[in-house]
Amino acid sequence: MESQLTPFLQTLAQASQAVLLVDYDGTLAPFHADRNQAYPYPGVLLLLQEIVRNRRTRVIVVSGREAGDILPLLNIHPRPEVWGIHGLQRLRTNGSMEMPRLDDRTLNGLSDADRWLGYLQLRSVSEFKAGSIAVHWRGLSASDAEDIRSSVLVGWRPIAENSGLDLLNFDGGVEIRPSEADKGVAVRAFLGEINPGTPVAYLGDDSTDESAFQAMQGRGLTVLVRPAWRETAAQLWLQPPDELRDFLGLWLKACAEQDAFNRGAHAPTISRTARYP
Q1: Distances (CA, A) of 228 to 26, 116, 236, 237
Q2: Which helix (H) or strand (E) holds 127?
Q3: Listed residue (79, 47, 58, 49) closest to 16, CA to CA
Q4: 240 and 220 in contact (C-beta within 8 Å)?
């Protein structure tokens, strides 16, 4: 693994600027039944804070959450840019928010999806965002989760078809959203804004991150971060929290010790064994 990761770290060490794109839930932070208590894994926040303070890395969070929900949980300064609702929202570091205007067909579809949840009495397990609705069943038994999923999709499938909306299955729920709300679309748009030679990595855990991994093909490093292996387009698999902390430590070291890397020093090892699919 070290021999495969070292070239990226050496490129990172020699670059004046780099970009670290990261998902939040399941990647930087473990899942929590109370989403407002889903704080980063121990030690991760400190490493990200040091990476940001080093000023050679632009940290950008790409999350399914609303963009404004991330900052209180992450709490690093200067605060990072956040792409929320799978890239539909863009919260810049100066606090300005960008989001496309949703057309009437989309808004009416989301309103119908909301009414269906009201009929099912499932609003209490739902997350209402500016441009989508997600139903969560993480923490429930398999049978209860399947009952909720089946009931929701009975109504949402025709609504999505009639409204041009997408249904997104994710780890622990399902979401109805505009087709523009896609992490791959967001990553491609962002990559078009930066210098093609800038080192870039994307870290994610869920099936929602696969489109981002694919958008990164040939452009940078893609890393699956999750306890258990699954099929993925990512190049590297890390198990959190230990291997995630080690990876971020290597990133920080590459940025902080540029001269050492330029002299040909070896990259330090990840303490546990990261795997390449």
Answers
A1: 11, 34, 13, 9
A2: strand 126-128
A3: 58
A4: no
Confidence (pTM)? 0.88
Name residue 17's amino acid: Q
Residues 58 and 24 occupy one common structural domain: yes
* 115/212 same-domain check: no
Separation CA 73–CA 172 (nearest Å): 20
Residues 275, 237: contact at Cβ < 8 Å?
yes
Residues 39, 168 within the same domain: no
From 154, 178, 202, give the residue that closes a domain: 178
Tokens 């473990």 locate to 30
Q: Which CATH number fits the domain that encloses residue 116?
A: 3.30.70
DSSP 3-state of 60: strand
pLDDT in tens, 237-272: 999 999 999 999 999 999 987 645 445 555 444 444
> What does the alpha-carbon distance between residue 225 and residue 236 come to, in Å, rounded to a whole number?
8
Write down which residue in 178, 208, 235 finishes a domain: 178
Contact 248, 44 (CB under 8 A): yes
Same domain, 45 and 21: yes
